[in-house]
Amino acid sequence: MFSLEIESDKLKEALEAAEVLVDECKLNFTPEGFTIRAVDPANVAMVTLELQREAFINYEASEGEIGVDLKKLLDLLAMSRKDDVVNLQLDETGHKLLIHIGDLSYTTSLLDPSTVRKEPKIPKLELPSQIILPGSVLVRAIKAADKVGSYLWMKVDNNLAAFILEAEGDTDHVQLTLSKDELITLQSETDARSLFSIEYLLDIGKTLGKANEVRINLANDHPVKIQFTIADGCGEVSYLIAPRVESD
């Protein structure tokens, strides 16, 4: 059972963070808030999201889960105005979601959670290099890299005390070097470098561009972890993207 009220922009921000990777997912509810954990169909990228009860105007929920079509739900939320409050209630008997947006009321069918792709386990990773920078800076580098190639190097150079984003195509090359003074944080005891698909970075860039602070954790030829807060600090999104490991 759950019943909640939340500002439309906060709910859309949370659901869009998952929808850039998956079309459908499970929403897991507890008395403390809801969470999403999902992996894209190619098993390259994973999203973990939590929205705490403090993000809501009103929130009542017991332990449970529902399956949702994210695109359909976001299409309905697109009808909301910026200052609208969204009310969601679960109709357990009909397995439907009741949605009130201002003077609009919707009833939409839910997915059977058993038909939704199984939630991934969160891997235990040692990612000792940490970089914190504005989301807009990272998105700019990703878009620049997309002009010249399909993959982006993320590197920490301890000698330079810098974070480097670099892409190379058949004929073109682009590099952004950010010194420690230009970053919010750079913490690393060793060099680190991994190569990632720009396609996936572009997808998640749709959601992290507005984040004042994005935290990146990196290691050699390991997945990258990218985290940022949402809903005025009452929620968090975390992405893991698998690296492309170059053969010798």
Structure, explained:
There is one protein chain. The strands form three sheets. A nine-stranded antiparallel sheet has the order 6-2-3-4-18-17-16-10-14. It has a five-stranded antiparallel sheet with strand order 5-1-7-8-9. The chain has helices spanning 8-19, 70-77, 135-146, 198-208; strands at residues 2-7, 24-30, 33-39, 45-52, 58-61, 64-69, 85-91, 96-101, 104-109, 129-133, 151-157, 162-168, 173-179, 185-187, 192-197, 214-218, 224-230, 235-241. It starts with a strand and ends in a 7-residue tail after the last strand. The longest helix is centred in the N-terminal third of the chain and has 12 residues, at 8-19. The protein is built from four helices and 18 strands. It has two domains: 2-115, Proliferating Cell Nuclear Antigen, CATH 3.70.10; 129-241, Proliferating Cell Nuclear Antigen, CATH 3.70.10. Helices cover 17% and strands 45% of the residues. 33% of the residues are buried. A hairpin with a 5-residue loop joins strand 3 (33-39) and strand 4. Helix 3 runs antiparallel to helix 4 (198-208). The protein is of the alpha+beta class.
SSE topology sketch:
Blueprint: E1 2-7, H1 8-19, E2 24-30, E3 33-39, E4 45-52, E5 58-61, E6 64-69, H2 70-77, E7 85-91, E8 96-101, E9 104-109, E10 129-133, H3 135-146, E11 151-157, E12 162-168, E13 173-179, E14 185-187, E15 192-197, H4 198-208, E16 214-218, E17 224-230, E18 235-241
Antiparallel strand pairs: 1-5, 1-7, 2-3, 2-6, 3-4, 4-18, 7-8, 8-9, 10-14, 10-16, 11-12, 11-15, 12-13, 16-17, 17-18
